[in-house]
UniProtKB/TrEMBL annotation:
Family matches, as PANTHER family: CYTOSINE-SPECIFIC METHYLTRANSFERASE, DNA (CYTOSINE-5)-METHYLTRANSFERASE 1
Enzymatic class: transferase
Residues at the active site: 128
Protein name, as recorded: Cytosine-specific methyltransferase
Organism: Mycolicibacterium sediminis
Amino acid sequence: MPAPENRKKNSYGVRLVRGPFLKLPPHKEHLDDADAFLDYARSVRATTNAPLAADFFSGAGGLSHGLEQAGFKVVLGADHEPFANRTHAHHFGGMSLDWDLSDPAVVAQVGGLVRDAQIDLIAGGPPCQPFSKAGRSMIRYRVQSGLRDPHDQRRDLWRSFLEIIDIARPRAVLMENVPDMALDREMFILRSIVEELEQMGYSVEEGVVDTWRYGVPQFRQRLILVALQDNTRFKWPEETKNKVTVWNAIGDLPEVVGGWRPEGGENGWTEYSGPDTNFQREMRKGVPTADANKVFDHITRPVREDDREAFESMTHATKYTDLSQEHQRYRGDIFDDKYNRLNENDFSRTITAHIAKDGYWYIHPRQARTITVREAARLQTFPDYFRFDGPPSAAFRQIGNAVPPKIGHVMGRAIMESLDAAEDAGPSTRDIGQLLNDWMQHSEHVRALPWLRWVEDEPPTRWSVIASEELLDRAPTSLIKRVWKLLLENGEPWKLSAAQRRVFEEGLQLFIENTGREQRAERVLALALQAGGAQQALDGSADELRHTFGLADSVTDLAVLTTPTVSSEAPDAGAEEPVLVTKGVLRVASRFQGNEVDRKNRLTDGRLAVARMIGFGDYSRRAHLGLIELANRWCRPQNPECPECPLRFHCEEGKKNLELLPTLFQTN
């Protein structure tokens, strides 16, 4: 490294991790020919009796490695990144394809290959890109209509993943992704995937998993989805009892200086004295005896002198803005967490592909440098014999993009156990959603929130929904009945004549008088006047509604959910369908599923629990409204009316309450 005085002033560029370029040879059982691959798959099944797996968007093979540890044999991988593809081809037999899965012709070919090889498990983490409203409209229409993708268009990769599953129909599907997939307002992609898989006949379970609960030494969350044939219930694995900290994971690795390179280029190694913890011993399994005293890839980027001084002054609790001004090379108001020293007694922050660009988020807990390739691999639970094709920067990127092998292991084992001891999964998301839809559509008992009820397949006007929410929230039933009749009869008050409008306003004020809701009534009348001049915004998106009328998010989302905008080409397909996660709805979901989503993880597990009850078909909008009605009238916090609930025969708490009814009658 040049001396500080020789560097250009304000040269803040980050050095890439340069170093030896590792070119890994293919696995001894690697194949390029499709016919040979099918012979290979048959041979593996016959000789090992192991279930076969394919890993799509496989990257370096973190998920593949975990599945093999669980007892599957991964015979097919696919990824469109060359370094990762060569890494996968080195570690796993069969085919490692560098094919473009956005091409429908390629998808059809791969799907046929997986089907003919009789693959038992399809796994993968398809990238899920955001969509325009127009794109969402068409996808929603096709999903809700039970249509499959036309073969004359390039498709999004998650849809390619589904298409391969639809062609091959494996016994099991394992998908992992980022939790953000479950956190957008509509949960659009996740609900679409669940709906399509259920249309194919799979039972589906999904959840957001903290990977540290399964032995990964990281604060890292992943969305896991499992789909099994024959309505088989997936039983989630139990948590690992012993949690693994940063020092448990990497404390045995020898000290090195930032930028140091061992002799021998890509085959160079660092002297290793042996493991100290159970996790470290596990990471050393599979290392050849000849390499027992060696650690490969224990290299990292050079350290600038000013960075070294900053690192030495830091603890794990030091913020970037706590550093002296001379060591703050970036704006503290923007990069307030630019540097992060790992806490050796806690979990690492999430290892991401960004580590290939700079390692400031991953400063070694004891040494004044960023972590090495091998340390990053350890924190992702890759064993020490697992190496990565390409230069160090490519290795870092592959590690950051990978699924921790530990997660593949525990989920793969849980899938095997669920298939071996098959239990009925009970009603599907579609079953429950359709049940709620039918109840909301036909039941005469719906009365808590009558403005959610569609009459003869016609929703109420948006204004009447907004007015009802603004005026009648937590109102007594007697008031709701009188005022709702008036609002329903005057669903578009701006179209009334002057005389009719006066009668409407006087009637509303008469009903509200002495109820403490007089100011609310004034606001509703003002909204009615405003709506007359803002019809486009009233019929527009949630954002337009919110900004134009100054409505709360809860009111806006309910209005959009209850009264969708209509497309002439695909009715109801272009309408927003937000997932509303209210306290009451979470209470219903918690009781129904027998969990605690109403008390913890409400924005992750809670949203998934609600989505699991409403689905994403042509039934889901009214199913969601039915869930809200249940929460407000029947599934009360105290003394729920279980005998009247449409879900009573499927609800975990409801079934217990119904079992107690004969006993209560006998007591009385």
